[in-house]
Design brief:
With 533 residues, the protein is α+β, with helices and mostly antiparallel strands. The protein has 5 domains: 2-37; 39-204, Beta-Lactamase (2-Layer Sandwich); 232-331, 2-Layer Sandwich (Beta-Lactamase), CATH 3.30.450.20; 344-431; 439-532, Arc Repressor Mutant, subunit A (Orthogonal Bundle). It is 61% helix and 14% strand. A 6-stranded antiparallel sheet has the order 3-2-1-6-5-4, with helices on both faces. Strand 5 (149-156) and strand 6 form a beta hairpin.
């Protein structure tokens, strides 16, 4: 009814104008809503695509690069950064940068410092229209080129783990509430992706650690298996029921039993006489005590009984429950045989020592008697030495007296010679000169001259030295040597001595021979004159 009335009524010009303005406003509102819808639709599409890309990313470095690329694309800017904080760090570090922030990689901020530190502290987004005039800015001229800037926290249950920051360098562009809402939704996706990357990295580290552990375990197992296989001592591994699970080649060789006969069975190689002590040893081992170098006996396939030295210890699971025990045996049969022979030899040796000791006691008694005899002899010898010392001192005194007497005799002889020389010169020579100058024949005068010469020679040093040094000369040779010294020829000497010239030559030859001048060119007269000096 109202509609019909409205339709029938004629509106005025003012009403029409108002309706038109209202329709324009509604159109503009619808247009803006349509733009917002389209923008939100595009944003949601971008977030959907971004989420798919982020979910697929696993490498942290590539993931951060993708997050920053998508965030700048959603906000219509080319400049952005991502700060991240480790759990144990008190600072955030810029891990990824784009555009303006590419040169800021590695920058660190503390809580409350700059845009990143403020968002970290407030745990909520922050939009700054002009960074240059913002009181909380970092005092760095490098950042003067920034205009509008927004920071979105990456917040998990543990708190803020990072900050995504975007910026415009054109003062005409700003970030609005729709940008912030879109970035908040994107930050939630980015945080999920980062958490996934962290979990993936943890899984990879755990897998790598497990692989390394498995490698170490395999190497350790191979090392211990190699040790067991190459051990010269028999080794057997039992489970808790006493079933053999492993024997080494030395066990097979020592007891003559193969692995196919032993594994999965209880080994029956304990002699009846050793069963009781073996059970007691097993009981001690199960109580937690280690069996070390326990000596017992074991039986081989061919019935031989071996003396063995046994050591056993339990091996356990990770929870500490025992899985079984490892037994190491050592064949000491040869050692026991040698010990038995040594005991027999030791007994024989003790008997020999006892017999030898008796002989040594007898010998010692004889030695003591000999020592007493030697001591007595030494005392007698000492007494004799003292007597000889006294005799020696007496002989020394006698020798001293004899030396004094000899010296006195030499002086007496010298004085006697001087007296004889003086007497000859005073009592004989004057008369002899008067005799020579008297009336004598030539022969008599020659004989007188010879008499004078001989007298002078008797008292001269030449004759003394000739007689002393050349005692081997005969009296005739001494007379010839004296006349040669006077310069007489062989003919003159022959006339004086009334002998032939050949006799003189014979005596001269003997004199040269006895004086050591034979076969030399030394003049005999010169040599005799030198002897006088």
């Amino acid at each position: 009814m109202i509609v019909s009335e409205t339709m029938t009524a004629k509106p005025s010009y003012a009403d029409l104008t108002g309706q038109i303005e209202a329709l324009n406003l509604e159109f503009k509102r619808l247009k803006a809503a349509e733009q917002v819808f389209h923008r939100q639709n595009e944003s949601l599409k971008a977030l959907h695509q971004t989420s798919l890309g982020l979910i697929e990313g696993l490498d942290k470095e590539e993931l951060l690069e993708t997050i920053l690329e998508r965030a700048t694309s959603l906000s219509g800017t080319d400049h952005g950064y991502i700060y991240l904080r480790e759990d144990d760090q008190s600072v955030m570090e810029m891990k990824m940068g784009k555009g303006f922030f590419l040169g800021q990689l590695g920058r660190r901020v503390q809580i409350g410092e700059g845009m990143g530190g403020w968002v970290w502290q407030a745990e909520e987004p922050l939009v700054v229209e002009d960074y240059r005039r913002w009181p909380g800015r970092i005092d760095d001229q490098v950042l003067d080129g920034l205009r509008s800037i927004v920071g979105i926290p990456l917040k998990s249950e543990k708190g803020v783990v990072g900050v995504i920051g975007l910026a415009h360098v054109n003062q005409q562009k700003i970030f609005d509430t729709e940008d912030v809402a879109t970035l908040e939704r994107f930050a939630a996706l980015a945080l999920i992706a980062l958490e996934k990357s962290r979990l993936y990295a943890d899984v990879r580290r755990e897998l790598a650690e497990r692989k390394r552990t498995e490698t170490i375990w395999r190497e350790s197992e191979n090392r211990y298996r190699t040790f067991l296989e190459s051990s010269p001592d028999p080794i057997v591994v039992y489970d808790m029921k006493g079933i053999a699970t492993y024997v080494n080649p030395a066990f097979e060789q020592t007891f003559g039993l193969s692995r196919s006969e032993l594994l999965g069975k209880q080994i029956d190689f304990v002699p009846p006489e050793s069963i009781a002590e073996t059970r007691a040893a097993i009981k001690r081992m199960l109580s937690g005590r280690k069996i070390n170098l326990f000596e017992t006996r074991r039986m081989t396939r061919d019935g031989r009984i071996l003396d063995v030295q046994l050591s056993s210890t339990l091996y356990q699971k990770e929870d500490g429950k025992p899985l079984g025990n490892i037994v190491t045996l050592r064949d000491i049969s040869e050692q026991k045989r040698v010990e038995k022979e040594l005991r027999i030899y030791r007994g024989q040796l003790e008997e020999l020592v006892a017999a030898r000791t008796g002989e040594l006691e007898t010998t010692n008694l004889q030695l003591e008697q000999e020592i007493d005899d030697r001591r007595r002899a030494e005392k007698a010898l000492l007494k004799r030495e003292k007597e000889l010392q006294a005799q020696s001192e007496h002989l020394e005194e006698v020798n001293t007296a004899l030396r004094v007497l000899l010296k006195q005799r030499e002086e007496d002889r010298r004085e006697l010679g001087e007296i004889v020389l003086q007497n000859v010169q005073e009592l004989v020579n004057p008369y002899l000169q008067r005799f020579i100058t008297g009336r004598l024949s030539t022969r008599q005068r020659t004989l007188a001259r010879i008499l004078e010469t001989n007298i002078n020679n008797i008292i001269s040093p030449f004759v003394n030295s000739l007689a002393t040094g050349m005692a081997q000369l005969t009296p005739m040779e001494i007379r010839v040597a004296s006349l040669v010294k006077e310069g007489m020829t062989n003919k003159e000497i022959a006339e004086i001595l009334i002998v032939s010239k050949n006799t003189v030559l014979f005596h001269r030859h003997n004199i040269r021979d006895k004086l050591g001048l034979k076969n030399t060119k030394i003049n005999l007269r010169s040599h005799l004159l030198a002897m006088e000096k």
